[in-house]
């Protein structure tokens, strides 16, 4: 595959449309199975609360993956992402009944050689910024 977004059609400072990703506890259970991370803070509410958490929390890497999903959805090609990194700044709390949402937006921060751009991401959940220094380098068409 090749990215569907064209390098010549993006500019530094351009804002990418925000997307909202719903998160339910079943998503955390599925992620635990895929990743092998069965820490009970991610699925057992009484345990999570017993260790001082407000409720079950999403895996940090699950949250990071949603940022990666945002970038690959925008670019149109998962293979277009050549570098991606984040820092975790807050927890994604996932209540039992309603779950929660992670809202992700981006801005073109830099245009590099070889049709690459740097996309700076903002990810929020429950009114808190959950990822900081989130950046992806993407090779565009």
Total helices: the number is 3
Query: Low-confidence parts, pLDDT < 50 over ≥5 residues?
Result: none
Going across the biggest sheet, name each strand in turn.
Answer: 1-3-4-5-2
In terms of quaternary structure, what is this?
single chain
Principal-axes geometry comes out as elongated
Helix content: 10-25%
Order of helices and strands: EHHHEEEE
Give the mean pLDDT.
97
Please indicate the percent range of residues in DSSP E strands (runs of 2 or more).
35-45%
Whole-angstrom Rg: 16 Å
- Quick one: biggest sheet? 5 strands, antiparallel
The number of E-state strands comes to 5
**End-to-end separation:** 10 Å
What structural class is derived from the secondary structure elements? alpha+beta
Can you walk me through this structure?
- With 141 residues, this protein is of the alpha+beta class.
- Helix content is 23%, strand content 36%.
- The protein contains 3 helices and 5 strands.
- It has helices spanning 25-35, 45-50, 60-75, and strands spanning 15-23, 81-88, 100-111, 116-125, 128-139.
- It has a 5-stranded antiparallel sheet with strand order 1-3-4-5-2.
- The chain is elongated.
- The model has no long low-confidence stretch (mean pLDDT 97).
């Amino acid at each position: 595959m090749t990215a569907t977004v064209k390098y010549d059609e993006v500019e530094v400072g351009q804002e990418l449309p925000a997307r909202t990703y719903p998160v339910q506890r079943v998503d955390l259970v599925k992620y635990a199975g895929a990743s092998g991370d069965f820490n009970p803070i991610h699925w057992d509410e009484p345990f999570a609360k017993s260790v001082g958490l407000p409720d079950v929390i999403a895996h940090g890497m699950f949250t990071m993956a949603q940022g990666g999903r945002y970038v690959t959805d925008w670019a149109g090609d998962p293979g277009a992402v050549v570098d991606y990194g984040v820092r975790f700044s807050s927890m994604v709390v996932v209540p039992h009944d309603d779950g929660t949402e992670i809202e992700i937006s981006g801005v073109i921060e830099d245009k590099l050689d070889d049709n690459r751009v740097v996309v700076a991401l903002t990810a929020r959940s429950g009114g808190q910024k959950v990822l900081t220094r989130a950046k992806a380098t993407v090779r565009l068409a």
